[in-house]
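Recap quiz, item 2
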Amino acid sequence: MIRGVRARLAITLVALVALTAVLLGAGAYLFVENNLRQQAIADAAAQARFDLSVTVAEAGLPPSPTVDDLTASHLLDRFHQRGVGAIVDLGTNGAAVSEGDLNGALSTFPADLRQRVDGGQLAYAWTTIAGTPRLVVGGRVGSTGPVVYFVRDATAIDAALGQLRVALVIGTLVLVLLALLVARLIARGVLAPVEAASRAAERIERGDLSARVPVTSDDEFGTWARRFNGMAEALAETIGRLEAAEAQNRRFVADVAHELRTPLAALVAEASILREHLDDLPAGSRRAGELLVADVGRLRTLVDDLMEVSRFDARAEQIALEPVDLGRLVRAVVAARLAEAAVQLPDAPLVVETDPRRLDRILGNLLDNAREHAAGAPVEVTLHSGRDDIVLTVLDRGPGVPPARLERIFERFYKADPSRHGGSSGLGLAIAAEHATLLGGDLTAVNRPGGGLQVELRLPVTQSLPHSDVTAIDAADAGTPTQSQQETQP
Amino acid sequence: MDARILLVEDDPSIREVTAIGLRSAGFTVETAVDGAAGLERFAAGGFDLVLLDVMLPRIDGLEVCRAIRRTSTVPVVMLTARADTIDVVVGLEAGADDYVKKPFEVPELVARVRAALRRAGRGPEDAERLQLGPLTIDLAGRSVARDGTDIALTRTEFDLLVELARHAGQVLSRDILLDRIWGYDYLGDSRLVDVAIQRLRAKVETDPAAPHLIQTVRGAGYKAVR
């Protein structure tokens, strides 16, 4: 766009300058040429008149002179000495010339010239004889005398005009170059603020709200720059306010969760003792005691999840990678969370570099979700590895989720079935998705055609194990990490 | 089991319920509400184990732990609200033997206390000496020397070193070490092992950055050189 403006400006200016230069140059040239030729004609005509009436008359030529008469009169020699060529048309007696170049030139003269001169007029013509430009002025001596053509060399005029033409062309070119230069300078001056504004806008687009346009002038650009800066100011202020509110919000959640921890710690400890003695309670209060113990568990889950979410929001999470035997991890988590789930693992051990605590949280939360939303239904956990990723699927045979709500189940506190009140915090799937993102993978959910929800964790595998990066291991028990691990597991 | 436990915890509810739980498990419990009171009580002597909250008013739990360590090898179990790796490291550096994350269930705490007491009460099994590279481990005297110079190890570090040295050349997984050293019969936090190994290396290795005596076997665990 900027290049376009620059080019348009240059083209317009150069065209204007070139047109002006050509018109002026052509005018000046025509004027000078006309003057030069008129002057030459006037000089030649005055001289011719004088020569016809005085110089030729004084030569004392007989009527109807011959070439010999003219030679004897030395008239042509005198013209020749003066530097003027002459041709005397002797009619039927032929023609006499003052120099060899002019032999036969008479017949090349324009017919118009010869008619006028024969008719008694003084006339002129521009012509070329022997390759040289000449000015020819002719006239008749008296009313019946011979016709004389004076031939002058016009090379000087043509040379002068040629020089003028060269000068004019060079001048025009210089002007065009100057115009280009000026166009560039103007473009720079005009476009510099536009470019500065463009850079500022680009910085704002990238999120740097402190970018401003320099206000360098009081013209339209200056006004515009002030407007732009005002807009950026307002934008930065609004976003700053929103961010502050958001941060305050998050701090509040973190503070709430934190403040809940101490009373919760007391509640958990108390409930754990109460649970041991439920049987000692009178029948009337036993049920309340059971509910209390269960609700403390729910509260604990909620506070733990809130703390986890606020750690995500504070971006305080760090990943600790280590080689993990995924099959072993999946079996352990399923055994702890939902032992009745069916587990399908690949035949070969699958060892990858990942953060086992996060994987534990993801799978655990998926299993909790399946247990809660598909209570009693069969649950299948499948692990398999693709070419550059591993896929862990948790499939339940429950009622599934209405399609419209499917994409929202990873939102915080989103409940696919609002009437359901389970032991979960409503944060489990959101937390699982956050962990998956931290590990570089993602979570997706689909309804199975036969009914039931299928949640899939896809993790990219950048480093495939087992590999040789084993710290100082002896040749004696060298082997894959998985193998040595299995050896020591009774 | 008639062990005496000092419980230092500022929150009255947690203090009371924890004391109730420990007493009904058969322990004798004395309580203190802050670090200064805790140190005062401890100075009176006679405790078999100290349960110490990390966040205490006046003198915090880590400081109390360091003060106790200056005069005693009594087992110290920290109660911590946060269990980030850094907190575990700081706790172990202060000389704690174990930590229990809040919120905890009382039976879980009792199990951990019993495990810590069991380890502390584990007498010299035999007048055996173990050799690990340049280290001489005196099991009866519970001391370790390198070229005749004694190295001061905490109880946990000593037990860890003995366990590894007894199975020199064999890889021990984190879970196994958790079970044998800390007495966890359930899934514990394996970071405890990693941090303790680091602490041990810092004391016994000539170059802890390139450990020679105690080696990491990626994806498997740790082993001592044969």
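The helical segments of chain B are 12-24, 35-44, 61-71, 85-93, 106-121, 155-166, 174-182, 191-204.
Chain B has a mean pLDDT of 85.
End of item.
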